[in-house]
Sequence to fold (166 residues):
Amino acid sequence: MIILVSGLPGSGKSYFAEKLAARLEAEYLNSDQVRLTMKASGKYTFQEKLQVYREMANRTSGLLDEKKTVVVDATFYRQSMRDLFFKLANDKSASVRFINVIADEALIRERLNEPREFSEADFAVYEKVRDEFEKITAPHLILQSTNDNIIVLLNKAIQYIRDEGN
Fold:
């Protein structure tokens, strides 16, 4: 199974996705961490971003071959990025669950002012990605992140993952 966790910079998606992967005992792939391993920090053209998504899809493919569940954490702000994973799931006969994490803009601004271990995104990056974000047309769960609701979000996500499989 592939679980795609989408959201704008500062939405709380990475914090959520990492906790979800731990709770599910799943593998966790983070676009910022993959970008670092590719030595692609600071490279943010669409084509450069797409290379990172392709690398994440390649890693996901290998993990699916090992019968692992994979939580993939990235903005997924363009349909072409999402399509890489939907095609992969189709090719591997794997299921996909899509979760979009959102947060109020004031909270996002506050979060982006704090140093973060892997992400280079600031509020200007948030605004750019927000303005380019393509509507999600696939079935998905929307989770509203606050600073104190991670347990609620995890429980909703796990219920969604289980219900969608029935």
